[in-house]
Structures are given as structure tokens and as C-alpha cells.
Write the C-alpha cells for this entry.
Amino acid sequence: MKNLVILGAGTSGTMMANHLVSKLPKKEWKITIVDQYKTHYYQPGFLFLPFDIYTEDQVKRVGKKFIPKNVNYIQKKIEQIFPKENKVELEDETLQYDILIVATGCKIAPQETEGMKGENWRKNVFDFYTYEGSLALRNKLRDWKGGKMVVHFTEMPIKCPVAPLEFVFLADSYFTKKGMRDKVDLTYVTPLGGAFTKPKATAALSHLMKEKNINVVTDFNIERVDNEKNQIVDYGDTTVDFDLLVTVPTNMGDEVIARSGMGDDLNYVPTHHNTLQSLDHDNVFVIGDATNIPASKAGSVAHFASETLTDNILLYIDGKPLKEEFDGHANCFIETGNNKALLIDFNYKYEPLEGTFPIAGIGPLKLLKESIFNHWGKLAFRWIYWNMLLKGIPIPMVSRNMSLKGKKIN
Amino acid sequence: MDLNITGIRLDVTEDGYLTDLSHWNKEIALEIAKENNIELTDKHWEVLYWIQEQVKNDVALSIRGIKKSGIIDIKEFYDLFPGGPLKISTKIAGVPKPKSCI
């Protein structure tokens, strides 16, 4: 009997377990998945939780429910991976593997910025990338009387890089609906050169910030949070005052990657962009937020990658060359407030373009344009996530590789 | 878009970043630096080569990376490339500017 071990039962790990259970011969392969946490969160929902659009129950499930019966599920902490010895040490047992899939994700690391996780953490300094943070922010917003709200992200790469923008758009809507928009000063602070950084998106979307009366501070590289003055301070000594800071801290891969000596400076595992094989170990594959590939850290990317990775694991088992197929395909809805959203579809090579999706010339979804239909798409996605995506069911008409059909290239 | 430097036409993005690092050379760097009112010193070159190395190795550029580079500290980085140090240094180094997905 051979062993395939999946580390992490988040979006990527769960999808891989579901793909592989029907593809690997049961008599020859035992599949094991390890995750220390019981709860599986629908992370895109953390964006809606603070604004009372989603409830707690809508963003969490018991993770085990999504793991196929024929897969050995272990709920334990992973201590260390020993890639040269093909083994993984858990809190009280050791697993040997023939093939390892690393799907340990990434998470916020507020401790990387001086003062961020200080005395005001979750008092007037919040994150919304964790369930706890998002929930604490909701409770704060419910009776916040207004003032300066600063929405900020620390540095790239972060999980779902559009989420801070979506947050500021939804905040504008939320305060408008509550009849207190005039009492809130909204500022978006980014380390990048603009709120939008790709030429087509900049041209199509820059007006949104002005329309919604959102101030933008660019090229802001945070050095520290000053908890006495309620300011964020950058390395060039620029400061931004806040009454309420909503920040996305530095994102880092799991500590187990650092403990195992398998990651880069941010604990991301060096991974082949197109095959998803680890660059250092032939029988180790990496998927989702745990990789260092220059794609977005997003569930849709993991979904498309999981299809290529499944094929490549079967090819690897057969001793055949791997497909250099994965193109960095991402497909994301972006909430812009007032029950509208954008849709973007892009990959390593092509920036988000205007057009129609998924059927060329018809749609019904519009790319890089605000529409109510796109917003319904985003809300429908929660159902798709729990019922299709995690189970590895392909989304009709949306292929793993990005299609140029229906897109305006020039 | 094209950029015309010392008689050579170069393919650049709409905001003036080289699309292909292999076309980069010292003359181009000097020219882009001049446009940004920067006179390149040895320290600048050291940083520019370091940035190119990071990009070739798939490492995302950030201020954190500069801090750990062992070449300069962040204060010096701001002094060398005033304004938006990452935005300006990447332009001179001929590599893509740090960006998001839209």
C-alpha cells in the first residue's frame, strides 16, 4: 500500500482529497488528510460579516463533512515535515508518505509590524482576515458613531488582494444605508502606486474612488502603528490619522513550513508555476496559498490549480512527464457596494480585461464593469463553494485555463 | 508603448516600465534615473542589481525584503529613491512595479 498525504484541509486540501479519492486505485493508495482545526471557514464571507450581510452560521461548517469517507482524516497539529525522509511528524505520531501535497495556506502576521497587535488590537485596530477579527469588527461597527476610518494593507502578497478595496466600497454603502455617511471620513491606504495597479483596471475603475468620496493614500509602507496618537506611520515619516483602523497585516505561510526549512522569507514554498511540483522535492506538490507562485492567493486559483495538480499526480505515479499547464487563472467577483459587483478573469500573462463571461458576446456576466448581476454571482458563489467547489465538481463553462474568448484585448 | 533611449526603441508598459528585463542595460538605467532626477551612485547600482536578482528568483518585492537585504536599511532606501522608493527603483532596474491583481 502506498501513501498520499495531504497537509491542510482548507479549500485546496479538501478539493484535492475529493479529486483524488475517485482517481487513485483504492487497493494501492491510502489517502490521508491532516488539519488541526475542526472548523472549515468560507473565507470570502469574512468580507460580509462586519457589515451584517452574512451571519456567523453562513461562513462556517464542520470540516470533516467535506472529506470523503474513504480518506483517512486526522485532526492533529503538524509539527514538522522531513522531505528528505518522506515523513511528517504530527503531535503524537509520524506519517510516512510516497507523495505529499502541501496545502497549509497562509495567514495574517500582525506581529510583523510594530504596534499593530498592540494595546488597541481589536479595540480600534482590526483585521477582517480571520473569523474572530471579522466578528469583532462587526460588533464594533454596529454602534460606531463615525469618524476617520482607514482601510489599509501592509504589503503584497496578501490573500485576495482585492478584499481591502471591496471592504472600503462596502463600508461606503453600509454607512450610507445607516444614514451616517457624512459622519465617516473614508481613506484607503496602499503600499502600491495606486488603488488600481493594472492599466485596464485603472482606466475602467479609478472613477469609483472619487464617486464614493474615498481618499486614497499611495506608496505608504507602514513602519508602525502609533497606539497613543492613533496613527499609522510609514518609513518615509508620512502619517495617517485614524479613529478606526481596518488593516490587512502581512500575510505569511504556516510556521510548519519555516520549521521544516521548506519556505522562503514569508514561509511560502518555492513551486513550479505551471506543474505545481515543489522545486526542491520531486514527490512534494504544493497548492493554494502555501505556494510562492505569482498568482492571486484566492479560492478560484486553487480550484483551477487542483484540476491540473490532479492530472499531474496521476502522471507522476505513472512515471510520465508532468503537464506544464497551469496558467495562474483567477476568476473573482469584486463587490463595489450598492448591490453591485465587478467580475475579473485573468492569469499570469493577461491582466483583467473588459468583455463578457463565460459566453463570448453574451455573458451573462460582464468583465471589469459594475453590475447587479455580478453581485448576485458573488452571493451565489457561497452556495457554489460549499456544494461544488470543495467537492471538486467543475464549474460549468469555466475551464481551468483562462480563455480569451469574449475578452477585449486592445 | 515605446520608449526611445539613446536611439533605441524599447517596449514599455503604459506607465513606463520595461516589459523585458533582457533589454535592460546600464545606459537605459541612467536615462530612466535622470528622468526621475536621480544620479546613480555605486550604492544605487548595488540595490538595482539586488532587485533584479529577487525578481529572477520569483521573490515578491517589498519594503520587508529591503530591510532583510543586508545591502541597505530602509532609511537609506528612501534617501536613494525619494518619493516612492519601490516604484522608482523597479522602474530603473527594468523590472515590473509591485502590483495587485487589478
